[in-house]
Amino acid sequence: MTISFWRYSHLVLAISSSLFLLIASITGVILAFEPIIEKAQPYQPSGASELTIAELLSNIDGKYEEVLSISSDKNGFITASVIGKNGSENFYIDPFTGEKIGELKEKAAIFNFATSLHRSLFLGTIGRFFIGLASFLLFLMATSGVALILRRQGGIKQFFNKLVKTSFLHDYHTILGRLALIPLIVISLSGTYLSLLRFSIIPEENISHAVDYDAIEASPKISTADFKVFNQNTLENFRSIEFPFSDDVEDYFLLKLKKKEVIVNQFTGEALSEQPYPFVALFSELAMMLHTGQGTILWSVVLGLASLTLPFFIYSGFAITLKRRAAKIKNPYPKDQCKYVILVGSEGGTTRKYAKLLHDQLLAAKQTSYLTDMNKLSHFKKMEHLVVITATYGQGEAPSNADKFKKLFIKDFRPKNDFTFSVVGFGSLAYPEFCKFAFDTDDLLRKHPLSTQLLEVHTVNNQSFEAFSEWVNPWAEKVGLTIELPKPDNLIARKKTQKFTVVNRAISSNVEDNTALIELKQEGNKKFESGDLLAIYPENSTRERLYSLGKSKDGNLLLSVKKHELGLCSTLLHELKIGDSLEGFLLENKAFHFPKKAKRTIMISNGTGIAPFLGMINRNGRAHEIHLYWGGRTGNSFDIYKETIEGALADNQLTTFKPAYSRCCDKIYVQSLIEKDAPFITETLKENGTIMICGSITMQKGVTQVLDQICQKHNNQSLSFYQNRKQIKLDCY
């Protein structure tokens, strides 16, 4: 089923039941305190559950004029109904002494009020019906919520994986949903069951004893302390016992245990009838305990906390929906009259806001622009320029408003004119399939005979406005426009940063390289791996600059940074001295972590792209087979990495190192080395080895082109085949 089905189901269920669930949740929180308060009373002496029923009866014998019954409540407290000096009384007793230890307390008024409101809304039968229906709808909402989380996380195995943050309401709607899932399912199903029981849809079964009263014997008479059934059962298995009304042989003890009832001859102790409780009765008791928390403090606390999440779910759910619908599309021109067409794929609404920014600026520039969802792909008769701005959902899947795009494109898209296209992908580097749907869309568009790619796929990490602007400017220049996007204040805010201190640094002896190797120690203990990213904010900017990092032997961050003439962050990093500090934050980049299962890994990089590989090699304690190909300008470019590489080769942490220098010696690029070692590359991929590539986009294009040729020539497979098998890992910039 599609994400749209589950999302709209989730929404419709919430709308139809929110009022009843809000009332039930608030009263549920109040009622969760009742069993906690009751259980905390001092009416259960230690070890009482180990007493036998015979011992209990002996302890109470002679203490009162007449004992009518003794019971154990949900908390294990023993109560007695007796006739004494003050007439008929009911109170708590000490099972060891039979003495009175407390009065039975009436239910507090607030709990009476909350119970009536919780069960029937003070509307009697009709109120019980609506509350029962709301319980069932809550179960359906939990089910649809699970489907949505599975889609977002990419499957059952990733269900409880760390969540990639998007917005507070959206994130905690998911986080609390996962934590409260089991309690909410238990609450909803038990509530539904109790409602069905109340309306006799599930019939109750009563126990019926068959006793031959004429055959009851009064001898041999023995003491109740010697009754077998009383000695075989402890108070842990005890519900209640009703005493005989008289000394007539037909009167008996009615003993109720956890799973059965026993009629006991009051003279001989013989079990006259023994009947187990029907399954419905036992299950109803379990449902009541699970729904109310009676007799257990821990489960009552869980129920209270789960009930407390429902008002948040209702508020955050509606807020997310309103936000998703907030970016309304206004198209002043018909679709078949527009030169520019913008297709948007958005899951939470943020990507749509960026698409709308571009659309509004095109309209302001007196251009005919049409903005619509990817699922509404049409022919667009006068389209000259197509822009696709899309997020990626879950593990590389299409957002809900773009899941039909591929089918529509293949079957129905028949434009009459040539057109250019450009794809912008929104996503988070914390997901392994970063912007995968954008790349898939770009591949699809490139195959159309009338299309011309205007710009390479541009990716935007964590909704960065500046990253989006970096694409808009060259795109506008290509189509002959000048566009300056106004930055909305509420589009994105800076993330919380932490402090990093320089503990070591080295500068390349090659002046042209202008490269530094910097080691940073973090303030705090946030876990990271080689291949993760360090994000740094330039001054007066909300767009972070990302640097691939390695992990040193001391557990510090290793960065290799090339200084750019107008680069704010690269200049800042180059000017840092040992002891200086800067602010930034760590981003997990699982897609570029070292493969633990592959026996052989080939690493390909140029320039500063070597940094994460230095960290991976440093921590290769298993002598995993690693082969490093690296491209630089001259032999001097290698100086700042030489000590680490030579040490790794000596310690067998690195198997081979092959450099390529583009400005000296043979003047070759790293892809030339790859082409030369084609048989070795082929063998590695066949044996499930991994190839990791880190460096410039230019290097990536050259290397992947050569790899694709090698794969097709020697393995009869395209490079994408190995990418889909996670044997090719890319982190280029």
From TrEMBL:
Gene3D superfamilies: 3.40.50.360, Nucleotide-binding domain of ferredoxin-NADP reductase (FNR) module, Translation factors. Keywords: Flavoprotein, Membrane, Transmembrane, Transmembrane helix. The chain crosses the membrane at residues 12-33, 129-150, 175-196, 297-322. It comes from Roseivirga seohaensis subsp. aquiponti. Residues 495-595 form the FAD-binding FR-type domain. It comes from the Bacteria. It holds the Pfam family NAD_binding_1. The keyword Aminoacyl-tRNA synthetase does not apply. Residues 340-480 form the Flavodoxin-like domain. This is FAD-binding oxidoreductase. One of its GO terms (cellular component) is cytosol. The keyword Membrane applies. SUPFAM superfamilies: Ferredoxin reductase-like, C-terminal NADP-linked domain, Flavoproteins, Riboflavin synthase domain-like. GO terms for molecular function: flavin adenine dinucleotide binding; FMN binding; NADPH-hemoprotein reductase activity. Coiled coil: none annotated. InterPro entries: FAD-bd_FR_type, Flavdoxin-like, Flavodoxin/NO_synth, Flavoprot_Pyr_Nucl_cyt_Rdtase, Flavoprotein-like_sf, FNR_nucleotide-bd, OxRdtase_FAD/NAD-bd, PepSY-ass_TM. PANTHER family: NITRIC OXIDE SYNTHASE-RELATED.
